[in-house]
Every structure is written in structure tokens, then in C-alpha cells.
Known about the structure:
Blueprint: E1 2-3, E2 6-7, E3 11-13, E4 20-23, E5 34-37, H1 40-48, H2 55-72, H3 76-87, H4 94-107, H5 112-151, E6 158-162, H6 179-186, E7 191-196, H7 203-215, E8 218-222, H8 227-232, E9 238-241, E10 245-247, E11 252-255, H9 258-267, E12 272-275, E13 281-282, H10 288-291, H11 300-303, E14 304-308, E15 314-318, E16 331-334, E17 341-344, E18 347-349, H12 353-359
Parallel strand pairs: 6-7, 6-9, 7-8, 9-12, 10-13, 12-17
Antiparallel strand pairs: 1-2, 3-4, 4-5, 10-11, 11-16, 14-15, 17-18
Amino acid sequence: MKVNGTSTRPIWLDDDGWGVNIIDQTKLPHAYEIVRMENLADACHAIFDMLVRGAPLIGATAAYGMALALKKDASDAGFDQAYSELYATRPTAVNLRWALDEMRAQIFPLAEGERIGAAYKLAAQICEDDVAQNSSIGDHGLKIIQEIWEKKGKTGVVNILTHCNAGWLATVDWGTATAPIYKAHDSGIPVHVWVDETRPRNQGASLTAWELGNHGVDHTLIVDNAGGHLMQHGEVDLCIVGTDRTTASGDVCNKIGTYLKALAAHDNDVPFYVGLPSPTIDWTVDDGVKEIPIEERDATEVTEMTGRLKDGTVATVTITPESCTAGNYAFDVTPRKYITGLITERGVAKASKEGLAVLFPDKV
């Protein structure tokens, strides 16, 4: 996708052929800064402190993190240490484990002298595969938007509500939930996006709105609790969200607040779709509510907010009483019964074990 007219990705190999550059997403939208990763510690920091975030991008960063680690120590012990440290950075997004397991399966059996080059090659392939998968998600999701547009008599706009950021900043390109939106916009369908702010880290306000604005997509930022109201008044034609882990039975784990949007959509007969590449499916888990670990992050993400003051200064302020405690559950699980369909690179599946088996017989 583009930033100020220039094609950009959130992660790429530097010109020297070994350092890895990322966009520091903690600084957006007030500053656009590039950070260079040079070792395992840099990659772990980028994932844990959310300089990169979004399940597919976390996986890509972990893959490059393994390559950086092997550049310093390509021994079996070095490999195992890198795997363990990267795996411990974020507990919920399954793409992290998937990417590390791909590295273990394809790189670990090689001789030490072959591991570094092969690791960089595999990390690059993981990135390119993600781009292709997300583009296909966009193609399949575009058909859904086209059908709604035609049902509306090709008048007005198609109003889409999304939660958190499942855009190109959360992947290597295109995004998952946003890929159909970008494809619809580029094809001439008038779309308007209701962007949930997504407290407490405000990924909707800081990232999704920034992305859509750079691409010229019409959008409106709303507070997290406004979605149900808009649905009641017919202002939402469909919801599309992303996911950090989807179970083999079709349950979806996504940013906290997604479950409530799904409930509101169900009550108001608004289609609720989830965009995801297949590496985000955890084929080892069936019951999302019981089995998926939910990350709990630092309470200051809830008690503090960062923004730009009128004089242009970026500042962090406390918004709660000094003695206030806060809980910060980062994700929730939406049961499959509230999901209209799962938009994957192979097509749209019913949110069920049987539905996923139709598209992924090789995985079941």
C-alpha cells in the first residue's frame, strides 16, 4: 500500500541484505519513524512492545527475528534460544508459533553453515506468501461488498464497520479485514468505513484511520460503544474484522470488544465477516473461549493516553484517579454462531469445522 504516494510495507529487508526495517507503529499517526532490527533482542522488543502488531506481521517479524538470531549464532543451542525468546513475546496470535514452527521444520535440519541464508530466504517467502494470501482475501471479500452494492441499487454507499486494525500495517500488505475494502474502493464502489477507536491502544484511531486516509477511503472514527447504535439505525451494511487466532471449529479471537460488535450485529441482522489467512487458523484448538490464552497487558495502557497537544507536542497523560487500578484484557473470543463467514485466501467458509474442511481438506 502507499504512504504519501510511495509504495510501502511495514517490514522489509534493508539494502545491506541482513538488517530488517520496520515502521514503528507506536509512533503513528503523529510521527512516521523507521526502526532497524539487527539482532534477536531487537525483534523480541518490536513484537513485545508492539512496534509491530497484527497476527500476520508478528509472524513475519518472528521469521526475520530468527534469521537475525542465526546470523549471530547458528548452532542448535542458538536456534533453540531464539525460538524460546521469540515464542514468549506474545501469547495469543497463533501466526507467531506458526512462523517459528516453519523455521524449525525447514531450517533446523540444515547444517549450521546453511542455516543463515536459508532462514533469510524463508522469512522473505513468508512475507510474500502473506501478501498473496491477503490479496486473495480481498478478492473474495470484494464479491460480498459487490453483492451488497447491487442490492442497494448501486446508490448511496456501502457502510462497513471494522474493529481494531486489520489493515496492511497488521500484515505485510493489503491487510485482512481491509483488503476487501481497498479492492472495493479501487474498483469504484463507494465505500464508507466506520472505524472503531479500539481502546485502550486506539489502533483504530491511530492506525486504521491513518491507513484509510492515506489511501483515500472515506471513513469516520467512532467510539467503541457506538457500533450498536449505528446498526440499530441501519447505518452499517456489514462488519469485517480480523483475527489473531481462529479455531478449527470457527471461533474467532480478536481485539477486545469484537465479541460485543458481533452480538450487536447478530441482533440487528448485520452480516459479520472475519478476514484471515490460513496461518491464523489454529487446527489444534476447538473451543476458543476455553482454550485460547488471552493476553493481559500493562494497566497503564488503560489509565494513560498519548496524543498531540495544540502546540504540536506529543504527550502522554493520565486519565484516571491516581489510586485507580485497571484490567487490560487484550482480546476476546467471538463464538462461531455469531459469524456470517470466514473470508480466507481460498474463499469464504462457514464458521464451522465442516465449513473450514471444505476449503482446507489438507489441514483437517
